[in-house]
Design a protein that fits this description.
The protein has 500 residues and is α/β, with parallel strands linked by helices. It is built from 26 helices and 8 strands. The protein is 60% helix and 8% strand. Helix 12 packs across helix 13 and helix 20 (378-386) crosses helix 21 (391-407).
Length: 500
């Protein structure tokens, strides 16, 4: 039996994992939406509830409020782009359920860590996970996938989820938030069977009553009908647009609602200009710098923010920005982590690039990569390095993470990173080419793997690299053996002995 790959524990990675599995802390001043919560509760018995809308419609806020309102166990999984790998996805799911049931999913855990996943791997994993869920004791559980679209870029995860939802036991219900269009799951089948409840942007828009409540808070009095009409017309009920307008009014009440709304539009470019003028530029310089330095990150903690910004009081500034609704927080104390609201990150990037040029974002990505690498988080650092402006750093990091990704059976992640890698030369290019061949072989793409190994082999012989020639021959031999071409493998072995 092949030995399972050993995964070394990284305390910082464990902190990030815990943050993914925590329900976000409630935003200060968040509007209660009892009508939507009641609707979610009314349909909570359906296998899947899907909140689908573009950024800024309050999907995560509503899902978190519903999770906190439940008097039953909740498993929350906040997805990041790094979760679009089936093995990573499966590990996090397993950990989420084991927090309340330590012996949960033994067979599923073995399959997730299997160095050679079986045929039908993703579908079988989904079926085994559904079986593990059916064996859970105690009250029903709610499984929440926040930002599910980030993981559905992986066809394996889509296959896994389709299998899971097809066999989902009655003691587990799923709620997911996603950007539009909806994730590419088998939703039509669920619609026909009335197994799906959906809320889209049209139903997530702020109602007249909700805007009345928010405007009353901002004005300190009951709003006039004409004022409500103007807010509704200017924002189209988009929660983010309303939040930005009322934030501007709170900071400068003397300007008056008419002047603030006169500058607000819901089209992207005009809303970007409004954010820049009314929010971003009115932050104190230190907070603005903190925002720019950390906006490249999906999620981060206060020590990482300090390293990137050089601000010793980064935690206090972040907490102040949490109170203003610009950043979302998870956990508390030393284990607190933070995540900029999606639109805030997009706005900041546009602001930096419009001010300093299209390439101005790249040095910020590179700086994040260097700091993450210094903290021992090389895998997180790779993506930032590839999006940065230091090709040498990007290739160095790829060389660092390739062996561990292959040991963990994550050849798909490695191959995706290698496809985005800058050109390399010499020894570095040769080692990366071998890593690419290993990844192709690990994914069962044997035709491509065979050609890749042959290319590495030819190059190794040309430059006289005996070690690389041996590694390429070993990889090629495994591929040929798996394809039943044993006579070629014997021939390679004979040639190798003759050379030795």
């Amino acid at each position: 039996m092949p030995a399972r790959p050993v995964t070394r524990r990284n305390p910082r990675q464990e902190l990030l994992t815990r943050a993914k599995l925590q329900v976000p802390n409630p935003d200060v001043g968040t509007l209660d939406r009892p009508a939507l919560l009641e609707e979610l509760e009314r349909h909570a018995g359906r296998p899947l509830t899907l909140l689908t809308a573009d950024a800024g419609w309050g999907k995560t806020t509503l899902a978190a409020a519903f999770a906190r309102s439940r008097h039953r166990p909740v498993v929350w999984y906040g997805l990041l782009p790094s979760d679009s790998d089936l093995r990573v996805f499966g590990r996090h799911l397993l950990q989420g359920f084991r927090d309340g049931a330590p012996r949960f999913g033994t067979a599923f855990g073995r399959l997730v860590e299997d160095a050679r996943p079986p045929t039908r791997g993703a579908e079988l994993l989904g079926e085994v996970f559904a079986q593990a869920l059916s064996e859970l004791k105690g009250p029903p559980r709610l499984l929440v996938f926040d930002d599910l679209h980030t993981a559905c870029a992986s066809t394996d995860i889509v296959t896994f989820l389709d299998a899971l939802l097809r066999l989902l036991p009655s003691q587990v219900r799923v709620l997911a938030t996603s950007r539009t269009p909806p994730p590419p799951l088998a939703l039509e089948r669920m619609r026909v069977r009335q197994e799906l409840f959906e809320l889209d942007a049209a139903r997530l828009r702020l109602s007249r009553e909700e805007m009345t409540t928010l405007l009353e808070r901002a004005l300190g009095r009951s709003p006039l009908t004409a004022e409500l009409d103007r807010l509704d017309e200017a924002s189209a009920g988009w929660p983010t647009a309303v939040q930005l307008a009322l934030e501007a009014l709170h900071r400068e009440p003397a300007r008056g609602l008419d002047n603030v709304l006169g500058d607000l539009r819901v089209q992207d470019l005009e809303l970007q200009a409004f954010f820049s003028a009314e929010v971003y530029r009115k932050l104190e310089p230190a907070s603005r710098e903190l925002l720019e330095r950390t906006a490249v990150l999906d999620r981060f903690d206060a020590p990482l923010a300090t390293l990137l910004s050089g601000q010793r009081d980064a935690r206090a500034r972040l907490e102040a920005l949490v109170r203003r609704g610009l950043v979302r927080s998870f956990g508390s104390g030393a284990e607190a982590s933070y995540e900029w609201q999606g639109l805030v990150r997009a706005f900041v990037r546009q602001e930096v690039q419009s001010r300093e040029g299209p390439s101005a974002w790249q040095p910020l990505e590179t700086a994040a990569a260097r700091v993450l690498r210094g903290r021992g988080e090389s895998e997180r650092a790779v993506r930032h390095a590839l999006d940065g402006d230091d090709a040498e750093l990007a290739n160095e990091l790829l060389l660092e993470v390739a062996p561990s990704l292959l040991r963990q059976g994550r050849g798909g992640v490695l191959l995706h990173l290698l496809e985005d890698a800058p050109s390399a030369s010499g020894e570095r290019a040769a080692v990366l080419a071998l890593a690419r061949a290993d990844a192709l072989a690990a994914l069962g793409r044997w035709d491509e793997g065979e050609r890749a190994y042959e290319h590495v082999l030819d190059e190794a012989r040309r430059v006289g690299s005996v070690e690389r020639e041996a590694r390429a021959m070993l990889g090629l031999g495994k591929v040929l053996n798996l394809r039943g071409r044993h006579e070629f493998v014997l021939g390679m072995a004979e040639r190798g002995l003759a050379v030795a």
